[in-house]
Design a protein that fits this description.
103 residues; mainly alpha; 4 helices; elongated; cell membrane
Amino acid sequence: MESALKPFRVLAYVVGVMLLVLCVGMVLRYGFDQAALSKIIAPIHGGLYMIYLVTVMNLGMKARWTWPYMLGVMLGGTVPFLSFYVERRVTQRVQTALTAAEA
C-alpha cells in the first residue's frame, strides 16, 4: 500500500496545479479571447487526470476501499483545490491503516 501512496500523492498535487492553471486558461479564453493557454493545458490536464485515475484505482484496490469512496477520491481531480484536500485525507487514512497493520 505504501508503494501506491507516493504516486497518488504526486499526481494529486500535479493534477490540482494543472486544474488551477486550466481555470486561468479558461478565464483568459472566454473573458479575454486568449485561447492559447487553454489549448495547451487542457489536453495535458486530461492526460494527467487519466493517469491520476489509474493511481487511485491502484491505491484503492490495495487499500480495499469501497467503490463509492474510490469514486469520491477520483472526483477530487475535477474541482479546483479539492485534490489538495483529498490528498491530505487519503494520506492520513492510509497512514492510519498502515500503523494499525503494524500493531
